[in-house]
Write a structure and sequence with these properties.
Chain lengths: 189, 189
Amino acid sequence: MTRRKSRPTKSDRTREAILAAARTLFAEKGYEGATVRDIAGAANIDPSMVIRYFGGKEALFAQAAELNLRLPDLKNVPEDRWGEALVRHFLAIWEGESGINGLPVALRSAASNELAAERLRGIFTDQVAPALAKVAAGGPSTTAGLVSSQLLGLAFCRYVLKLPPVVALSSEQIVVEVGRVIQGLLKPG
Amino acid sequence: MTRRKSRPTKSDRTREAILAAARTLFAEKGYEGATVRDIAGAANIDPSMVIRYFGGKEALFAQAAELNLRLPDLKNVPEDRWGEALVRHFLAIWEGESGINGLPVALRSAASNELAAERLRGIFTDQVAPALAKVAAGGPSTTAGLVSSQLLGLAFCRYVLKLPPVVALSSEQIVVEVGRVIQGLLKPG
DNA sequence: TGCCTTTGTCAACAGGCGTTGGCAGATGGG
DNA sequence: CCCATCTGCCAACGCCTGTTGACAAAGGCA
């Protein structure tokens, strides 16, 4: 049926172009706001190809919203820098310096699209909670929930809502201020 | 033109029914997800009436998303309870115990709808920032931004995303945990 | 050369959207 | 009672959506 070569075929390249355009537009305008025609246009392709390559808009979104946070193992980080390390990691993701681009996609649509919400909850359950369970005092999932609430709130205000004073903050300020808060949640007292 | 009576006319009652249905559905499914036909159905009315009463979907949404947070004057609150007071106030809003129902409407759509986002930014500028400016140390709007990020993150995870461990928290736990964080932002050290 | 798979375009579909205008009862003041 | 206004339903509009199937050039293998 399909050719099984190792070299990238033409098909692979347009497939990647569609996926890149989808990620950009989904992150910008959300699931319902980004139409198949928009995405196809941004990828210089016919809308029907989007369906042929991915099976449908939902499947395309699911693939565009896939992500591995690659959270650092906090056991390799000094105890008093856990908050700082987490904030730095998430900032790098949001500033696009990590190659992890599914998080903006998922967060933008999570409020109005159940598929995106489920994806975000899955990321919490499968990635955030386990990573924090190893180091958190108290109810581990409770702590993980509060930490996520803090980090998502920051991302929402800075990158989605674009609240001016939060946008104006420097990365270093955020690392210090929010890092301190998260440090307090992980190691109270 | 219009009758100027003090007693509620029939028109007033259906107008209120439409508005109530709109608030519920907008808060549940977001701006694009809640259709005029849905809202009309929930209000037992014809879709065309929604347009006649409010001029259009956008205007209806603008009205449904109106809100006055009625933030407490922190000068009447002991300094060491500012965080607690703020968290209690916001929790009451989100639990529907305050009669302020525009915040869920605005937050649900803010990520995918510019009108809702602008509304939320306006609430920050006109209501949150001024209320905190009177008491915050350091850059007042910076502090207000970080506090909002915390409160919106909590609301997002608990009421919009419905992250299980955050939903499971009791009101009292939230008041204690998040109250402490916000207290720390308002009065560092 | 001839052929079959791939890569892509085009036109069209069915369905849902917000919105409009016309018409039918109800209502209430003169 | 009569007429004007109000309240509401109905059918339809133009538009945009995701998706489909038919058909045309391109490209490698025999």
